[in-house]
Structure formats: structure tokens, C-alpha cells
Write a structure and sequence with these properties.
Length: 228
């Protein structure tokens, strides 16, 4: 009886130990490797990896979503292509390697991913942060100088600038003139104080509402969109 009691007590203590309650979270390089394996599989089926497919920190994901919203308001894409593989209509991916260049310390780690796209060698650096949900990406950088966090921050800043600020008074005035010619809105966003993207989007919308006989020539010019 005593032997049985001791065995049961040992089992209870083992079950209550932290290691039994939850398995240790995957290492940061394992998280990144899983991301790349999934991205390669999607690419093989003609699918791109998007923000929703990635394990991102809450703050990083919020920043990307804010940048995406800002870009869409100007009728422009923020991320155009595969977010992980850094290419559009990617060729087959090969020679993928993932390794930690900075081991975990104080909840942060740096992971380097190397791979080849159509013979072009790529290097990406993933800045990882430890969260209650496990290791998450807090930035993605490439050897070509691309920095996703900085790009998102720049997109948000640019969206807040007026067309005059970004392209100059003369170009802003030209875009406003085109916009006011075709916009059916009572209070159209054809104002140089708005972003150029917003003005151009309204111009494209207005051009699309006109029949071919009444469209100004600029409606088919590159940059203002070709009306259907």
C-alpha cells in the first residue's frame, strides 16, 4: 500500500511541475525556420506569404497594419509581393538555411536566413522578441537595405504629408486641376493639402465614371489610371 501511495504521489508531483504543464517554447531560429518552410510550400503552389501568416509581435503587427491602411487610403499597396521571400511571382526557392547570429539574451535574439531565388542569393535578418506566446518577429531586414519596420514608419509619415510637400506646388496644382475636372463629389478631395495618392485615386474614380466620349486625355495617361 505504501509503495502504491508513493508512486501516486510521485505522479501527482510530476504532473504539477511546470515542465509537465507546458512544453518549452520553440527556439527563435526554429520559429523562423517554420516560417520559411511554410513560405516555400506556399510559393510552390503559387501563393504568397502575407502579414497574417507571420508570428509578429503585437506592436510590429499593429505598425504594419497602420502602414497598410495608410497606403490603401492612397490607393497604393504597402506590401507588394511575398513578405518572407522578398519577391513577386517568385521562382523556386532553394538552399534555405536559418541560424542564430545573436543568441537569446534578455528576451531578444537575431536570426539570419539565407536562401536563393532564381540563382540570386538573399540574406534576411529577423529581429526576434520573446513574448508570452513565444518568440515573435519584431522586424525583418535584408542585405539589400530593406527594413520592414522603417518602411512602415515611413509610409505612415508620408501619408500624413500634403501633396505639395511630397511633389512640390506645381505638380500638386496639376493633379488638383485634373481631379476637379472629373470628380463628381460635392466636396471632392481635390486639394493640395491632401496626399497625392488621395487626389490621384479620386481622379481615377472620376475617370471611370465617365463614358469614353467625355473622358479627358489624362484619364488614359500613365499614373492616372486607365478607365474601363
Amino acid at each position: 500500500m505504501r509503495t502504491a501511495f508513493v508512486a501516486i504521489l510521485g505522479a501527482v508531483l510530476a504532473a504539477c511541475s511546470p515542465g509537465a504543464q507546458q512544453q518549452s517554447a520553440p527556439a527563435p531560429e526554429a520559429v523562423v525556420r517554420t516560417v520559411f518552410d511554410a513560405a516555400v510550400q506556399r510559393n510552390a503552389h503559387g501563393q504568397a506569404t502575407t502579414v497574417d501568416d507571420l508570428p509578429l509581435s503585437d506592436s510590429f503587427k499593429a505598425l504594419i497594419n497602420q502602414a497598410t491602411t495608410a497606403a490603401e487610403a492612397n490607393d497604393e499597396p504597402f506590401i507588394d509581393g511575398d513578405l518572407v521571400l522578398d519577391c513577386q511571382d517568385c521562382s523556386p526557392i532553394s538552399a534555405v538555411t536559418v541560424a542564430a547570429t545573436s543568441p537569446p539574451l534578455n528576451g531578444r535574439a537575431t536570426i539570419e536566413a539565407r536562401f536563393t531565388v532564381a540563382g540570386d542569393a538573399r540574406v534576411e535578418t529577423w529581429d526576434m522578441v520573446e513574448t508570452p506566446q513565444g518568440w515573435r518577429a519584431d522586424n525583418i531586414r535584408s542585405n539589400s537595405g530593406y527594413n520592414l519596420r522603417q518602411s512602415a514608419e515611413q509610409e505612415i509619415r508620408d501619408a500624413a504629408k500634403s501633396c505639395t510637400e511630397t511633389r512640390g506646388a506645381q505638380e500638386a496644382a496639376r493633379l488638383v486641376s485634373q481631379c476637379t475636372q472629373v470628380s463628381p463629389a460635392t466636396h471632392p478631395p481635390c486639394n493640395a493639402a491632401n496626399s497625392c495618392g488621395m487626389i490621384e485615386a479620386e481622379t481615377r474614380r472620376g475617370c471611370g465614371l465617365l463614358d469614353a466620349a467625355h473622358r479627358p486625355a489624362f484619364c488614359t495617361d500613365e499614373g492616372s489610371g486607365e478607365a474601363p
